[in-house]
Amino acid sequence: METTSARRVLALLRRSLAPKGLDVIIPLTVESYNQYLEEDTSAASDLTRFQLPIVSDALASHLLVLVGNSRAMWGPFLSNVSSELKHSGQILPNPIDRYVQLHVETTIKDLKRDGLIEPIQTYWVADTTPGKMILAQKMALAARVVTRCPPSQLCLHPTLGPWLAFRCALVFPVEGIHPISNAEEGDAEPMPEQPSLCSHDDSMHDLLAAQMADALAQVQPDNPGVIRPDAWKKWVMPRITIAPSHRLMYSSEQILYHYTKDLAFLANIVRTKEQNLCTDYLRNSPPPAAVECRKLVQTVLREYRDKHPEGIDAISLSGGLDTSIIAEASDQEWETDHGIGVFSLDKASRARPILRFDHAFTVQAKDEAKDAYFAGEIFKRLRGYSLSHHHVIKASLEDLLSHAPAVAKLLVSCDPMELRNSLVIYATLEQAARLGVKRIVTGDGADEIFCGYGFYHKMDEEALIEYRDQIIRVMQFTASRLAQAFEIEVISPFLDERVIAFAQTLSKQDLVGERTPVPVDGPDALHGKLLLRQAFPEAFSQWRSKQPIEEGAGTTALRMGFFDGHWSQEEFEHHQKKAFRDHGIVIRDREHLFFFRAFLDAFDGDLALVPKRRRTEKDEEEEEETSDGSFCPACRFELSHAAQDFCVTCGFWPTRITPTNDKSGYATQALTTLATTKKSLAETR
Questions:
Q1: Is CATH 3.40.50.620 the classification given to domain 288-559?
Q2: Percent of the chain with pLDDT over 70
Q3: Which of 212, 484, 591, 679 is the most exposed place for a label (fewest CB within 10 A)?
């Protein structure tokens, strides 16, 4: 029978240990643990030698409590290490084991002080002495509160995932308690019983098995108890693979110490945390190219600062990496008093940004759009130091679409992707103009020159360089053209010729790679603009994943069915045929139809008024369509650049076949499909 004494003991353990980060408290019984070991068939050897002794025949069962920690232990543990450093000037061996023992033993004293039953035996997970060694994972499995993942040899908690560690077990001379019925105070329901085995599929198990084999290969044959100092990543990868970017994942610093046990690194962590310093480069120096990149971008930003000593009117703050760097980049050099790359993060002192702004603007068309959150966090950091006002422009999709004719005319475009993004920029500029802004800074160019787009990730080196250089030749940005309508000057630091020239010297390894110093978002997660991220660790959005303007602001909804209710399929096909018959434009979908009609309205219904050269229908009849690659085959308007394979007027891609866009035959297929579509539309005239 579950006893009041057991519940009181558990309540005190939680109350005393949880604030210290020892917040994993798992009750079971000695008997259930012993039985589990007896019945477990997963081990290659007999596990009964690890059974615990039964101390009294007077009880039907004995309370056994397994104690562990989540990421919550890291902060209190660092405080404890800090005190030790101040007291003795060094960190003694095994600091985590000593920390756990200190607080568990203090809690046992509290039990005695409160008149509760003390444990009759304490087992430490770190103690592998025969007769004292316990199998902590088996205890958790016997309690049915975790699931076992065989290839990774990890326990998976329903809340914490794999991000927990077991530290000790306490045996009490009271009746045990069933863990599943033991709802913690304030819980709505008890924790559900966990299955014994994980639900990962065979491909995941194969990957984890390969990773574990790779990790085990790091063990030094002459000293099996020690792994190579640089092998930590091999050991942590199964854990990350199971639960990448888990909300309760250990921090990068916690992971590095957990797998390296590097006391010098731990001392540096304590120092940097106390002084609010960057921790990215405490174990490894920054890449030389990142050092050069930082110096160059700082030079460009300083020149703008010197040109505008009173500050710049505004920044278009999406909260992405690019604008985060522009807003937050400080004057700090790589060589600091604390080591290479150990920058201050204190915005009030050494991390004060190079540039100052009166206003920042962020558009939010959907509540779930992320730009407003990231921009808001940046503003919190900079308010009172380098940024005075942050304006979140909450606009409905209908509000933004009301500007479609004006934007279409200014850009001379009905390309849905272009307009989806540019409506956001237009709303920003309109609000900026109302507030008297004359200059605004944007992050334009960083994605193009530093390979920020996801399609770069799978390209080989040659294809990436070729495509990057082609984009640089033809790239153009709508902010400056839209801003002219409001008499606002656009400043784009990443479009400085020196920055572009530097970017063109970089290899794929410099531009695309995993997160550093710990790839917490998984083995397959790659980040573009890698050097920029590594060069500016003071940026809040340093590792924010790439999101185009439309996604960050919320206008992506326009291509996700927003226009489905505007026209039935029959109505859409009618308008599609009419657009081709009357104007020679191939309409691809309902969103494209909406923006084409806005484009047509902008030019009074007459495409002859569009200020662009256009090939006539007669030209098409007399020539092979691919004979002149300077015109778009879907709308017949002239392309923006001789090397361009994307039409900025209607958004069709690819307009011609190139070695890059046809490596898998995509361009050939797309142009064949277009020809078939045009033939079908022509036949229905």
A1: yes
A2: 95
A3: 679
Residue 400 in contact with residue 423, Cβ under 8 Å? yes
Closest-CA residue to 510 (of 527, 492, 530, 496)? 530
User: 208 CB contacts (<8 Å, ≥6 apart)?
Assistant: 149, 151, 152, 200, 238, 241, 242
Q: How far is CA 132 from the centre of its chain?
A: 43
DSSP state of 353: B
Distance CA 534, CA 520 (A): 15
Report the range of poorest mean pLDDT among 110-124, 414-428, 469-483: 110-124
Least confident range of 4-8, 13-17, 313-317: 4-8
Structural tokens at position 114: 């409160």
Closest CA to 269 of 80, 546, 108, 54: 80
The per-residue pLDDT for range 274-311, each reduced to its tens digit, is: 999 999 999 989 999 999 999 999 999 999 999 999 99
| Angle subtended at Cα 348 by Cα 345 and Cα 351, rounded to the nearest 5 degrees | 35
**CB contact burial 129-167 (16+ within 10 A = b; e otherwise):** eeeeebbbbbbbbbbbbbbbbebbebbbbeebbbbbbbb
* Helix 232-242 and helix 202-216, axial crossing angle in degrees, nearest 10: 160
64 three-state secondary structure: strand
Report the amino acid identity of residue 454: G
SS (H, E, C) 481-516: HHHHCCCCEEECHHHCHHHHHHHCCCCHHHHCECCC
Tokens 């806005």 belong to residue: 598
Amino acid residing at 447: D
**Of 633, 676, 673, whose CA–CA distance to 655 is shortest?**
633
- Partners of 24 in the beta sheet? 68
Q: Which of 508, 525, 511 is nearest to 447 (CA)?
A: 511
How far are the Cα atoms of 496, 587, 639 from residue 579, in angstroms, in the given order?
41, 7, 20
621 vs 463: CA distance, rounded Å = 35
Nearest to 51 by CA among 138, 122, 120, 126: 138
Which one, of 652, 648, 653, lies nearest residue 408 by Cα? 648
If residue 32 lies in a helix (H) or strand (E), which one and from where to where? helix 30-39
Are 415 and 435 contacting, i.e. CB atoms less than 8 angstroms apart?
A: no
Asked if 685 contacts 581 with a C-beta cutoff of 8 angstroms, the reply is yes
Q: Pairing between strand 147-149 and 219-220?
A: unpaired
CA distance 229 to 309: 48
Angle at CA of residue 439, ends 433 and 444, nearest 5°: 105
- Helix H or strand E segment including 225: strand 223-227
Closest C-alpha to 135, from 54, 48, 234, 233: 48
Q: How far apart are CA 18 and CA 24, in angstroms?
A: 8
